[in-house]
Amino acid sequence: MRYPDFLKGNGRIGFISPSFGPTIEPYASCFTEAKERFKTMGYECIEGPNCSRSDGMGKSSTPENCGAEINDFFINDPSDIIISCGGGETMCEDLPFVDFQGISAAKPKWFMGYSDNTNLVLTLPTLCDTAAIYGPNASSFGQRPWHQSVTDALDLLTGKNLNVRNYPKWELEQIKADADPYIPYNCTESFSMKLEGSAAAPQSADFSGRLLGGCLDCLQLLCGTRFDKVKDFEKRYEKDGIIWFLEACELTSIAVRRSLWALKEAGWFDTAKGFIFGRPYLYNDDSFGLTQDQAVTDVLGGLGVPILLNTDIGHLPPRMPLIAGALAQVKAHPGRLEISHILK
């Protein structure tokens, strides 16, 4: 596994928009604020051309333009690390225009983003053996003040701290508005992780493996395409096994069940050492009387590995930043989740 150099003081932060760009509120104001914050910290900010575009379908620009921007920032030298400006709907269409061979040959760079950015967070480690961070998009750095999860993400990028843990509360209802786009997360709900699938230690779990995952909405689409090299990745790191971190955005509980069934049948979970599931964005969905927790355990419960539910990952913030491709030690106890990244 290739681990990029950490962001140094006075380093260059690159911003790209392989999915939606920051052209509407509140994202435009938050992006501007994020850049100002980084500049006051001594960093140089470099924007890709798609950061100001809105001519794409479900993203900033055409798949060709988005692929070209990705290639430029990874293969050439405009920045030291790369943060995605936002999520979206059709980033998968960029992949045919991404030069994965060139990225594999170039010096690795950290990439960070979540949601639709799963399309790179999964393919960078599986196709290029390059670690990537499933963490906040650029606009999150525009909140005042920063939530601890945002600070944790920057600490990963700089190498200041490679360990993350859950946060006391999370946001169920967003209160950010165009009139005040900088409002931080509205964290009102207490952390309520559940542990399933570990009969030997039903109240706690301690396991290790190599992290892989992202947004299930995107992963189900990549499965079986020419960009699906998960089985090859599993073979390369068979001795480590995989810890899957997963979360759903627009999928109902029934859709989560179907998606997990498909990935399981495709062999993605053959070497699974455990699962870490984020809170469902459709939090109160119980389609057909099925909750997301039941959807997950019904499909994966027979694997005999720990399954952590309702964790700080995904679309209901805060989110723990995780390094896809890295080895990790996971310690889960009632009311506490700790993940230590091991870069080897």
Brief summary:
This protein is 26% helix and 23% strand.
Proportion of residues in extended strands: 15-25%
Distance between the termini: 7 Å
Order of the strands making up the biggest sheet: 6-16-15-10-11-12-13-9
Number of discrete helical segments: 10
The helix fraction, in percent, is 25-40%
**Class computed from helices, strands and strand pairing:** alpha/beta
Order of H and E elements: EHEHEHEHHEHEEEEEHHEHEHEEEE
Could you name the ranges where pLDDT drops below 50 across 5 or more consecutive residues?
A: none
Characterize the biggest β-sheet.
8 strands, mixed
* Overall 3D form: globular
Radius of gyration: 19 Å
Q: Average the pLDDT over all residues and give the rounded result.
A: 96
Q: Can you count the beta strands?
A: 16
Protein model, in words:
This protein is α/β, with parallel strands linked by helices. Helices cover 26% and strands 23% of the residues. It has ten helices and 16 strands. The strands form three sheets. Strands 6-16-15-10-11-12-13-9 form an eight-stranded mixed beta sheet. Strands 2-1-3-4-5-14 form a six-stranded mixed beta sheet, with helices on both faces. The termini are close together.
